[in-house]
Amino acid sequence: MEYAIKNTFLLIWIALFSQTFCNKIATHFSDPMVPVFMSIRRLFTVWATFIFTLPLTGFAHSSASLNIAWPVNVGELNPHLYTPNQMFAQSMVYEPLVQYQADGQVKPWLATHWDISKDGRVYTFTLRHGVRFSDGEPFNAQAVVANFQAVLDNKARHSWLELVNEIESIQATAPDKVVLTLKHAYYPLLQELALPRPFRFIAPSQFVDGTTKNGIKKPVGTGPWVLKETRYGQYDRFERNPGYWGEKPAYQQITVKVIADPTSRAMALQTGEVDLLYGVNGIVSPDMFDQLSHSKRWVTQVSDPVETSMLALNSSRFPTSDLSVRQAINHAVNKEMLVQTVLYNTQQPAKTLFAPNIPYADIQIQPYQFDLNLARQLLEKDGWHLPEQGTIRMKNGQKLSIDLVFTGTNAVQKSIAEVIQGDLQQAGIQVSLIAEEESSVFARQRNGRFGMIFNATWGAPYDPHAFIGSMRVPAHADYQAQKGLPDKKIIDAKIKQVLLTSDATKRRELYRNIMTRLHDDAVYLPLIWISSWAIASPSVGNLHFAPMTSDIPLNQFKPVRN
């Protein structure tokens, strides 16, 4: 851009000099020569005008860039690993065999066709012809097998996804044919192949020592974007993949600016530093979103509910190890008031772990109603009493005090945590708020160092099968929260059954049993059925929401031309 501006000023000077030069020369010649020099002057003018428009054209082209804000850098973008790799950025660079759609179905993507054996164990994929990685390497069956093998080489890390455990073999039978054989029929296979990780494809030349579990050389995928530059703590810059096989994005460049604080993100939007804020709430504070949505300067949009935000209550750590405490927490939080006062009615209060529009979740479960008196009664009955002139309940000499861990950069979590702290205080429960960086929060989820911690279901296409399947993995908050439950082994066994059964009726009954047990154990406090938010400058044009909540549909955004 700076180069284009300098050239523009240079060419303006040339144009003005040309006209002035011709005028002065013409005045020193006889009248018959004046038309000649005037013609020369007009020629210079036309030439200069033409040249002058070139940098402007280049400027307009170079301005086809989009600046967005994100709390952290996108990571090294290993398609087969997790945090700190950001899922939306992994999806920009890497692609799946099949793509998830808004209607819950999958469509051909890097695979154009697939056949399934009668017993449901063997899938034969036909690959799209003419696809290359952004470095020019061909995408073929050998590349697919190499990537699958890289995932399987790190099986312990990926075992939360049941598909990884069910793969028996992966073979290339032709340059465009891959045969995937399972141990058992597995109904969510195609949905799990569509996930943003781990079954996406990096150029095999970028493996380190023949695998990806210890890192990659460079993030080289088949997707529409290429990561060009990273400055830690500042930004990540993506450019359009010139050799992309599909429809190319309208934007030439995407800059992801690292802005950790939600207030600073809002200011960056208002000052024009960024053009778009997008995400599953927390991108700005709820009051700021409400303010921006009522301003004609910005375009704002709210998606349909996509996932559930909740607290995981640690059943193996005192005092949330008491069922009465977990039940009381569920009755003591006024979700309706929370949504009104904190979220400005931009979200819906959650009654259960999954919204009823989620597959298999339309079951009759009696929600925990807000009832402060009932919460107090449950605690009293279980021996949690208020001391004289005290405000915090005690039992056997121990205070009813619980820590609540949240991500400090998430404005919504902070606001909700403060409301929950106040609500539980009314029931005699002390809540200590712990705000930490995202990586530290994830570490606590993995090792169980929490009493209550923010968590969320994963949205489409993970819910319910992948999210429930991950409850058996110790590195997940759900496992840590549930491991103190008397029926934890039963829950895990039923999860295994539900993922492998090919009987739809039996599958529905198993899901009902699992969800009912988790509800009765009160191991979660469902808070809100959350929607994605998008806030943009009018120059971004129409806003779209991706079928998967982890994605940002950057390919669909088109700049408005003035």
From TrEMBL:
CDD domains tied to this protein: PBP2_NikA
One Pfam family recorded for the sequence: SBP_bac_5
Segments forming a coiled coil: none
Molecular function (Gene Ontology), one example: heme binding
Domain of life (superkingdom): Bacteria
GO biological process, alphabetically ordered: nickel cation transport; peptide transport
Residues in Solute-binding protein family domain copies: 105-473
GO cellular component, one term: ATP-binding cassette (ABC) transporter complex
Protein name according to UniProt: Nickel-binding periplasmic protein
Naturally occurring in which organism (per UniProt): Vibrio quintilis
